[in-house]
């Protein structure tokens, strides 16, 4: 984003007001004192230590990739002059990005105070951007305030003129996909999905009770996965013995075949291992990452079940870095192995890594099990746009299924008891997208009660009423045939609608 052009003014305009020059990406020069910036930023302190003095008549120049607007704002916060004023949250976001880059804690605090003004805005668009900025830079108190303000403005735009003020809003029973559509804006696209999940929970809390004081928007810090498990590695038996020792940065050595590693990856490029007579090589990787990579070089993926999510993702990213041939095959197998236990987690990982086919499978399973709104720590590492796509897909799937229900009362009952419907619908989610639909529709038509086989009436031994019973049987058979035909049509309609539901990945 480009901001207004900046005219360099005092105290940064002349050489008498500094001992070093910061030259921005748009060619503006700021004369500053190294001591001031060194006190504010350890990054600048180290940078100035590397500056070589040239002509004593000229000040040393340090080129930086940031534009003049951001640098001017940060310098005015550091110097004893009036702080800059901001007209939009985007300007603060740009300054926070650079302040974090240069580790300028004082600037970060001041920018947080400036962002607080936008958390009190009336406009939903501006408040949403302020919420996105506060979530992006972990300013929890402002995120909480913006979330509450957005929840009141979106779920209850006007207080009731009559009746109890605590009356629930219609959105209190809305599907998470509907709630997501009401809250989502493009400014939230790259924020953590965990923040958006907490925002929706605030929305539900306020929609249920106008006087609610929701606190669920406070960031839930992820519990660490714990130490990575060591993966043993022994090269498979071949005619030739291992001729290379690969050493990890934590001191673990692995025997390997040089030709296999060279053929399957570029791990040895730029090392002494390719030189004649070299028998060992040091790789700057932990043994818990290096061992799986060596397994992949030998086309072995049987170890994937032992890896936790972040461990598996790190192995995959390192495999891509070293161009290991089996990298994608390994990650797809790990995702499929984890899908039965946690389809929502698999969707989040697959979506952010670009495995769209796996993400579609996981989205279907998570939808049929009704777990799309269950929090998972992978939301903290996935962008909101991917999570919103999952919620919208889940809502579209529900609506497509309900097209096969006969009357409005049963449709409403199925919406309110969707979890019970999913218990029937998701029982066969390993079979395909349309399996279990007929059973779930029968469950809804039966009043959300388990269907039972009707009891057979024993035939009468007397001969009385034979003609009447015969006519009754024919009428009942015709009625059952009509019901069966209607049921078959409704199932077909639901199946057609469900096949049309597609998961769209936002750009």
UniProtKB/TrEMBL annotation:
The record's section on InterPro entries has: BTB/POZ_dom (IPR000210), SKP1/BTB/POZ_sf (IPR011333)
The transmembrane residues are: none
State the residue spans of region: Disordered: 446-491
On the tree of life, the source organism's domain of life is Eukaryota
Q: Where is the composition biased (Polar residues)?
A: 459-469
- Kindly give the PROSITE patterns that the UniProt entry links to this protein: BTB
Q: Which Pfam families match?
A: BTB
Q: Which residues form the BTB domain?
A: 18-79
Q: Which Gene3D superfamilies match?
A: Potassium Channel Kv1.1, Chain A
Q: Give the protein's recorded name.
A: BTB domain-containing protein
